[in-house]
Amino acid sequence: MSKKILAAILVLANVLSLASCSMFTTPTFPEDDDPDDTSAHSESTRDKIYDKIDKISKALADSDYERFKEFSEECRDLERAMPSISEKDKDKDNYMAPKVTDSWKVKHMIAETITYKIDDDSYKGGFWGSKCSVDVTFSYKDYHEVVGMREEFLGPADFNTLLYDVEKTIDTKINLIFTKVGDDYQLYNPAEFICLYNYENLETLKFMKNCFDMVKNVYMTGPGWDEATESYTDVNEFTIVFELDERAKNYVWTYIYRVSEELNPKWNHLYTSSRITVESPTEIRITYKQDENFKTGYYCFIIYDPQSETLMGMEYDVYNTKDGSMPTTTESTTETTT
């Protein structure tokens, strides 16, 4: 049997060798069949893959799974790993919005630093262009350098400010595989990206509610102030003092202050400042002064933090002997509103 087959092959070889050039045609294959092919079509395929990698990287940095899955197979484990924050989560005025923890916000901020670099030499086209692969190094800022900077952070934004200046990165090389689906390509191994969100020990981070957590004491002072009755008498100026703890020196404070007379039904706002910025304060001391003495009434002196949308200050009585009033009781108290 084997001899007959061999003979048939030899006969076929002779026939082919006798055939004219016009009778012999070289088989043709899809243009990007060869992994090392440098034809225009192969270059076009690589450009498509690189464009998809750019879009995938942006979706990873935004923790946007809906956008990511436009270029990839389904991967629910990756979706669960992504520290995504929806528009509802960002809506402070929507009480129905899902609550996102501060540590989750920090994870989202770390993910936002994701970048990538393609290893051009590693690009490979598959058989008949059905599969392509390339090595890509994904990087994000080394958040470990920030974790030890503070015992307590002034919210996730404070963590993010420190993270911005970190130059060291955590790098992971991932071999991305793309398979052809129709005329397009789809990422075949999305689960490889889960490692980009494995941030450790962030649940143990401590966060202050707002800058007023650093206030040790707040009090009124200055001419005409009586601590016993918590009131001013015959004065044209108020002075408020916020004593701050050691943590305050790590921050730049921005605030607005307001002095108001508490009338019913509508308060009389005597003065509202523009934004004031102070770097590394040990205390905040503010004096408000007018030409004539304040009339008898009930007043408040507050500072407002625009970032956390919280305020803190004091309420107190004011007496004016020209009005025939004198302090008799102690009613005012320190007030903090959040």
Task: Please give a structural write-up.
The chain is of the alpha+beta class. It is built from eight helices and 16 strands. Strands 7, 8, 10, 11, 12, 14, 15 and 16 form an eight-stranded mixed β-sheet that branches. Strands 1, 2, 3, 4 and 5 form a five-stranded antiparallel β-sheet that branches. The chain has a three-stranded antiparallel β-sheet with strand order 6-9-13, with no helix packed on it. Helix 6 (102-111) packs parallel to helix 8.
Question: What can be said about this structure in brief?
Answer:
The chain contains eight helices and 16 strands. The protein is α+β, with helices and mostly antiparallel strands.
Q: How are the secondary structure elements laid out?
A:
Layout: H1 2-18, H2 40-61, H3 65-68, H4 76-81, H5 87-90, H6 102-111, E1 115-118, E2 124-125, E3 131-141, H7 144-147, H8 155-164, E4 169-181, E5 184-187, E6 215-221, E7 225-226, E8 231-233, E9 237-244, E10 252-261, E11 268-272, E12 276-279, E13 283-289, E14 297-305, E15 310-319, E16 334-337
Poorly predicted runs are: 1-41, 330-338
What is the residue-averaged pLDDT? Answer: 85
Alpha carbon gap, first and last residue: 95 Å
H/I helix tally: 8
User: What is the rounded Rg?
Assistant: 35 Å
Biggest sheet, open or closed, and with what strands and sense?
8 strands, mixed
β content, as a range? 25-35%
Structural class of the helices, strands and pairings?
alpha+beta
DSSP strand count: 16
From the spread of the alpha carbons, the general shape counts as elongated
Helix content: 10-25%
Oligomerization status of the protein chains? single chain
Elements, N to C (H/E) = HHHHHHEEEHHEEEEEEEEEEEEE
